[in-house]
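Input set for joint prediction.
Command: fold jointly, output tokens.
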Amino acid sequence: DVKVTQSSRYLVKRTGEKVFLECVQDMDHENMFWYRQDPGLGLRLIYFSYDVKMKEKGDIPEGYSVSREKKERFSLILESASTNQTSMYLCASGLKPEAFFGQGTRLTVV
Amino acid sequence: GQNIDQPTEMTATEGAIVQINCTYQTSGFNGLFWYQQHAGEAPTFLSYNVLDGLEEKGRFSSFLSRSKGYSYLLLKELQMKDSASYLCAVRGSYNTDKLIFGTGTRLQVFP
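tokens >
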């Protein structure tokens, strides 16, 4: 079974903090993705990576950065958290044809 | 631009059949996916269509018409556990698994 693991299910952070969301997959997938999911907006792609040290911006990269130092790990970084980044964050790992999702991290920025 | 449209909410009765439609306009096309997402959980893969026609998988079937930019997910013999959101997603590029998602259709199944 493919496993995509996100480090936290729930996080509460203060405005201005630097936040790290970690994602690990165990199936040697090349492609990994970070989405955020908000009511009425669906899943929106923040960043994706198709190989180690490679990254591409998705549809809403502003305020975020990513790191892919090892194939199995893809980190999403909020440089200075703001209240409008309160959301559900979903990591996914790709294997043609489908993508597998982690359980999600519900981040609240206060 | 990229646009994927699906109804926001639908209701149906246990044992019935429901069809959830999805229309898309994307700059490229390399497959259409349906995911199921229960409240508070991660999306899970249901189906994949890359050629026109119907793909059947147990109680769930998915249809694609590329010329019309249209797909539907058909759920038969509805059960209470089918109450969930159903997400339509399009893969626009051949070389990556990048998916563009619709906003999802929340299906409620009543006894």
